[in-house]
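We store sequence with structure; for instance:
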Amino acid sequence: MLLSPLDLAALVVFLLVWLAYEPLLKAAAWGKGAINTDMTVIRLAWMKNMAGRENKFMDGQLFGHVLNSASFFASSNLILIAGAASVLFGGESTFRSASSLVVIKTSTRILFEFQIALVLIALARGLLDFIWAIRQMNYCIAVVGAAPDTEDQAFKDRYGAAAAKLLNPALSAFNAGVRGYYFSLAAAAWLFGPIPFLVTTLGAVSLLIWRQRHSKAAGAIRDIRALLGG
């Protein structure tokens, strides 16, 4: 049997948590209380202010910073993917080298390749999120550049709201890419056995939820949302 019952249980928990985390977070965070939800209100305020500013140099600088961050993470992700792929396709010698380590708990080469493949898939999903974030951020830059100079406040508000509808998904994709690192680390823990795999998976998602709702950053962002009247 390729997977023991414990391996299979840990894998099922990982897949459920990994694939369901974002939809469940959105459902649980409806309203106030989570960073992702509160930041949508703050970004809306930013875009409305952007639409009303004559000089948008600061907005361009902020977009440039986000683009650089996303590009850095995407490049780092590519390096990690290349490393994982080299292990996955390293053949029998790689498996023997890994199996010789006391801390590595893998019974067969097929299981070992399956474990590495899971890490690779988690990283690849994160890379796709970063790429999509970068593309959307480039669209946002065009939106900032196209913002007309007008005194019509109602138009400015509508333009800012429309821009926020583009900006929020872009940064949500960026956040999803960053979360990919958490789940990649959890997947890598499978190499140390099913128990570390399960514990690391639950630990990763618990840390993500805690940071979303109970960290100091979450509290500060919640206060700023309240000050903005969101």
Observations:
- The chain has one domain: 5-227.
- The two ends are 54 Å apart (CA to CA).
